[in-house]
Amino acid sequence: MYKLVFFVPESHAEAVKQAVFATGAGRIGDYDRCCFETRGQGQFRPLAGANPFIGQSGELERVDELRIELVCEDHLIRTAVAALRTAHPYEEPAFDVWPLSEF
């Protein structure tokens, strides 16, 4: 089992979540589409050659984003990450994948 955590602008959160959920990620027992959301503010500065969804090259940008956390079975994690990358509006979405211990 893995925990997948990603950061997405609030305006695109539902679309990205639905793409990830469609892979089977976010299932806990007899429940699906399970996740936890935290609001925050992300910041970045696009460098030369970047094609930012928001902001301009060389300028610091701050965006209201959601941190989405969910679990994902081992055999689904690569598909879930691929769906995240495809649905996310950013050129380089920020995400973490952590293996979980079974208890």
Automatic annotation (TrEMBL):
InterPro entries on file: DUF34/NIF3_sf, N-reg_PII/ATP_PRibTrfase_C
Name by which UniProt lists this protein: NGG1p interacting factor NIF3
Provenance organism: Oceanisphaera psychrotolerans
